[in-house]
Design brief:
The complex is a heterodimer of chains A (284) and B (134). By secondary structure, chain A is mostly beta strands. Chain A has one domain (19-283): monomeric porin ompg (Porin, Beta Barrel). Chain A is built from one helix and 16 strands. Chain B has a single domain, classed as Cytochrome Bc1 Complex, Chain D, domain 2 (Orthogonal Bundle), CATH 1.10.760.10. Chain B is elongated and about 70 Å long. Chain B is mainly alpha-helical and 134 residues long. Chain B has six helices and no strands. Classes of the chains: A mainly beta (284), B mainly alpha (134). The interface between A and B is medium-sized, with 15 and 15 residues.
Chain lengths: 284, 134
C-alpha cells in the first residue's frame, strides 16, 4: 500500500479555477425596507427621489376608510451618490415640517466565496440630522429644533431569495418634555438618548416581487411615554429604475428617530396603518 | 349599392392608414465594431452566471423584451423600434461580444446600461441568460 505512487494535487490540471472574490449584489432591492434603511448604497452617479406615505391607523374602519382618509404623513427625499459607497441626501416630512440631511456609507460589503479576503456580511452606517421648522413660538432655543439618528446596518444575503438585516440604532433629541417632580423642580419625562434595534428580512417570491418584514424593538426605558415596538409586513415590486413597497405596520412617522422614540401605535391593540415607499433612480 | 362599396372602401383605407402608424419601424442594421464582436465571454457555460443573468433580465430588460426574449414585453408596444425576437436564428447567430456590445451601449429606444450595469461580468451573465431563450 505504501509503495503506491503518491498523487500530487499540483499535478491535477483539471482542478477548478479559484472563484473570483466579488461583492454580492442586490442584498436588497432598495435603500429602504419599509421603515428602515438597508445596507444598499447605489452606485456612483445615482440620483434617487423618494416618495413616502403613511396613512392613519385602520382601526376606525369605515369612518375614515381604514385610515386612508385620515391625516397622513408624507416625506419627499432627494439623494445622490457622489462617489462609490457614499450616499448623501435631504428630505422634508409633513409632520412638524421636518427637514433631514442624511448620509450613508458602505463600510464593508459581503463577498462571495470563502476564506481570506472575504466578508460574510455587509456593514453600512446611516445617520441623519433633522430640524423641526415650525414657527419659532414652538421653541425656546434654536437647538430645541434639532434631533439626530445613527444606525449600523449589518446584513447578510443568505441566498438569492433570502436576506436578513440587524440594525442597532441611537436616537438623540435635544429637547424632551418636563414635569414638576417636586415644587420648583422640573424633571425630564424621558431621556434625550434612546437605543433600539431593528430586525428586517426579505424573501423573493419572484424575480421582481419580494416579501418584506420589519421588526423594531425599543431598548432604552424612559420614565414615561415609552415607545411601542413596530411590526410591519409588506410587498415590494422592483424594476430597473423604481422600487414600490406597500405595507402595513405601526410606525407613522417618517423620521427614524421620531419612530424609535415616540411610536405610540400598539400592535397588540390592532393599531396598524398602511404605507408605501416609492423610489425612482436616475444614473448620471 | 355603390355608396356601400365606397363607404367600405373608405373604412378599409382609413384602417390601413391608422395601422401604418402603429407598426414598428424597420430596424436599421446595427453594426458592432469588430474589436467588440470578437470579445471573449469569460463566463461562458457558468450556471451561476445564467442565474445572475436571469435576475438582471427580470429587472432591466423584461419590461420591453418580454419574459422569454420574444420582444413582447409590456412596454414593447410603446416603442418606436421593435425590440426583436431573441429566440430567432438571426439573434442567436451573433457572437457573445456583439450581444454584449448592444446590451451595454444601447441605441435609440434601447437605453445604454453602461452606468446601470457597470460590472462587465454582469453583462456577460445577461448574455449567457439570453443564450438560453428558445
Amino acid at each position: 500500500m505504501f509503495l503506491m505512487n503518491p498523487a500530487y494535487s499540483q499535478d491535477d490540471s483539471t482542478a477548478p479555477e479559484p472563484v473570483k472574490i466579488k461583492p454580492v449584489k442586490n442584498t436588497f432591492e432598495s435603500i429602504w425596507i419599509i421603515d428602515n434603511q438597508t445596507v444598499m448604497v447605489p452606485i456612483k452617479g445615482t440620483f434617487e427621489m423618494d416618495f413616502q406615505h403613511r396613512f392613519g391607523v385602520w382601526k376606525n374602519g369605515y369612518d375614515d376608510f381604514f385610515g386612508l382618509f385620515a391625516s397622513s404623513n408624507i416625506r419627499l427625499g432627494f439623494n445622490y451618490a457622489p462617489i462609490d459607497k457614499l450616499f448623501v441626501g435631504v428630505g422634508i416630512t409633513k409632520y412638524k415640517m421636518t427637514w433631514d440631511a442624511n448620509v450613508k456609507y458602505a463600510i464593508l460589503q459581503q463577498t462571495n466565496g470563502k476564506g481570506k479576503g472575504t466578508y460574510p456580511v455587509s456593514i453600512t452606517y446611516y445617520g441623519n440630522a433633522a430640524i423641526d421648522t415650525r414657527p419659532a413660538d414652538n421653541f425656546l432655543h434654536f437647538s430645541d429644533r434639532l434631533f439626530f439618528f445613527n444606525q449600523i446596518l449589518i446584513a447578510r444575503k443568505i441566498n438569492e431569495k433570502i436576506s436578513v438585516q440587524l440594525a442597532p440604532s441611537h436616537s438623540h433629541t435635544n429637547v424632551v418634555n418636563g414635569y414638576y417632580s417636586e415644587p420648583g423642580k422640573v424633571s425630564q419625562e424621558r431621556k434625550h438618548d434612546h437605543f433600539a434595534v431593528a430586525l428586517s428580512g426579505r424573501y423573493k417570491l419572484k424575480e421582481n416581487l419580494t416579501l418584506l418584514a420589519n421588526y423594531d424593538q425599543p431598548i432604552t426605558k424612559h420614565k414615561s411615554g415609552n415607545p411601542n415596538p413596530n411590526i410591519a409586513l409588506g410587498l415590494e415590486i422592483s424594476t430597473s429604475a423604481h422600487a414600490f413597497q406597500f405595507f402595513a405596520g405601526n410606525y407613522y412617522f417618517l423620521s427614524p428617530q421620531q419612530n424609535n422614540m415616540y411610536n405610540n401605535n400598539d400592535y397588540t391593540k390592532g393599531e396598524f396603518l398602511i404605507g408605501f415607499n416609492i423610489t425612482r433612480l436616475w444614473n448620471y | 349599392m355603390n355608396s356601400k362599396i365606397s363607404i367600405t372602401f373608405c373604412l378599409m383605407a382609413f384602417a390601413a392608414l391608422i395601422m401604418s402608424f402603429t407598426f414598428h419601424s424597420k430596424q436599421d442594421p446595427w453594426v458592432v465594431p469588430e474589436k467588440n464582436a470578437k470579445m471573449v465571454n469569460p463566463l461562458k457555460g457558468d450556471a451561476s452566471s445564467v442565474s445572475a443573468g436571469k435576475s438582471l433580465w427580470a429587472k432591466h430588460c423584461q419590461s420591453c423584451h418580454g419574459k422569454q426574449g420574444k420582444g413582447d414585453g409590456s412596454k414593447a408596444a410603446t416603442l418606436k423600434t421593435k425590440p426583436g425576437d431573441f429566440t430567432s436564428a438571426a439573434f442567436k447567430g451573433q457572437s457573445d461580444g456583439a450581444i454584449f456590445y448592444k446590451s451595454s451601449e444601447g441605441r435609440k429606444d434601447m437605453p445604454s446600461f453602461k452606468k446601470k450595469i457597470p460590472d462587465h461580468d454582469d453583462v456577460w451573465s445577461l448574455v449567457n441568460y439570453m443564450r438560453t431563450f428558445k
